[in-house]
Amino acid sequence: MDHRFQVNLRGVIDLLSHHLYSTPGVFVRELLQNATDAIRARRHLEPSHPGTVRLELIEKQDGGLPTLLFSDDGVGLTEEELHRFLATIGESSKRETLEARRDDFIGQFGIGLLSCFMVCDELLVVTRSAKGDGRTMEWRGRHDGTYAVRPSEHPLEHPGTQVFLVARADAAEYFTAERVRQLAVHYGGLLPFPIHLTVDGRAEHLNPAPPPWRSEYASAGERRAALLAYGREVFGQDFVDCIPLRTEAGQVEGVAFVLPFSPHFNARQKHRVYLKDMLLSESAENLLPEWAFFVKCVVNAQGLRPTASREAFYEDATLARARDALGQCLRQYLVELAHGDPRTLQRLIALHGLSVKALALDDDDFYRLVIHWLPFETTLGMMTLGQYRQSFASVRYVNTLDAFRQVARVAAAQGLCILNGAYTHDTALLEKLPRLLPDAQVELFSAAQLPQGFEELTAEERQTVARLRQVATEALEPFRCEVSIKKFLPPEVPTLYGDVDDGAFRRDVERAREETDELYASVLEGALAESREEERPQLCFNLRNPVVRRLARVRDDAQLKLSVEMLYVQALLLGHRPLNAREMALLNRGLLGLIAARLDDDEGTGGMH
Ligand SMILES: Nc1ncnc2c1ncn2[C@@H]1O[C@H](COP(=O)(O)OP(=O)(O)OP(=O)(O)O)[C@@H](O)[C@H]1O
């Protein structure tokens, strides 16, 4: 025999009212939202019905706990509806109409009213239905899950609903005029019906102005100023520009504000989002595509779904489409700047280059539009790709920071402009260039190419370095490194180590062979065999360097060998290459040798005094 689940009513009410929502203050949101839905439902019956929501704080003369009254002139509830919708958890009058009127009602889950039990133990609802027999009914629900319905002794003159909440002692802080005003403006500030708050007999209109993106302005300049002022008010900071947002998917509208500083590239901005004019969240993160981290938004959506706690958008296909469409609005703004106001676009790229680069990577048309304005680091300083291509036929770049460090000084001294592709997106952007602009030449540059442009030695100089060349060649043979001697700038650089593209990989394999077991080493070697034919790395000595010139004159072969080995290890270290065991031994031996020689010198000199 089948059994039914037993539900502990008190437990469910406790769970829903205390654990679903992040703060008790949301009861104001839930009540405003019910009132709004009721007014919208009444408009289905009477389309010209204006609708008003009134809040009143009734303070007790005897110092007892205050009561908060929410009244609306919405559709109201019949006796049957009171039993059905107010007294059944999970039952909502809005659900059956949901598919047909998704853009209309805010509520859908049938649990919102329970949030009131976070701040009071008993709820009194007095209501008269616009559809019923004109009777006013009273529903009294308690936090223990019991309720009573009866005809009210205080009949309402017109259809509508009043909800009375008597503050619970531990929630009295939510029943002050200041707090109620702040919560009502916070959640309901954009609602299209007037909300009035009455305290001590004085009424105040809480939402006199519509959101600025719905207002009319005399000029575009005035509109921009009003939107920027709104951004400052909402987020407490100044923005450099504002971008209108409007999408069909999810029916989103609002404004994106361009941040005045450059955020971390994977920072996700927190946006303020409204759902059907009611505040949903101040920290929505899933609204924009990932690349769009340079803006903060305020938007209202008519056609997206909330999560049950109503504190975020529900992740579904409509939200995904809305996100794409919002990305298109931002893209359109950048495209318009590119055509109409390139200076502003350049300033924006200087501030938010990473966002623009990420979009360019994703979007070919946009890439073509902005690629020449994007800044890159080069061996001759920062420049845009446009500036680079104006001066150099082929775009040469390195793709790691180590490679850039290695070539930067020497290349700059030769007037060679090499791009640093090591920053986020840069290599990918450069690799995309020939695919989108067929006339563009792009080549990966390696330090091994540098010596090709260096000055050759004269016949006389070749003679003076013959001995250095021979000793160096022998000293570096065990390391399969070739030696060349040329003249290059700057003179302070004694040597340049260069290897072909897979050189760094080859070195890694060699080191791994020393450190790991045979199986792994053979796998690595297999991979190495597939890479290109071996080209030996090269150590190029700079005869413009004073130390190298002195070396050429050293007669003591042992001394010369030690110096060459040290220059070799230094060149590797400068290029951030990992040293293998033999090179490490070389370094240790060399350092000890140098210290010993120094000590010998000192002792020799000491002895003379
Ligand atoms: N002010 C009101 N006027 C008319 N009907 C109301 C009012 N407040 C609540 N109701 C009725 O009570 C039902 C339950 O309300 P509740 O706030 O618990 O859930 P909901 O608004 O339907 O959905 P959600 O949980 O998503 O807010 C509503 O569907 C509606 O029929």
UniProtKB/TrEMBL annotation:
The keyword Membrane does not apply. It comes from the Bacteria. The keyword DNA damage does not apply. InterPro entries: HATPase_C_sf, Hsp90_fam, Hsp90_N, Ribosomal_Su5_D2-typ_SF. GO terms for molecular function: ATP binding; ATP hydrolysis activity; ATP-dependent protein folding chaperone; unfolded protein binding. Transmembrane segments: none annotated. ATP binds at E30, N34, D72, T161. Keywords: ATP-binding, Chaperone, Nucleotide-binding. Belongs to the heat shock protein 90 family. This is Chaperone protein HtpG. It comes from Archangium gephyra.
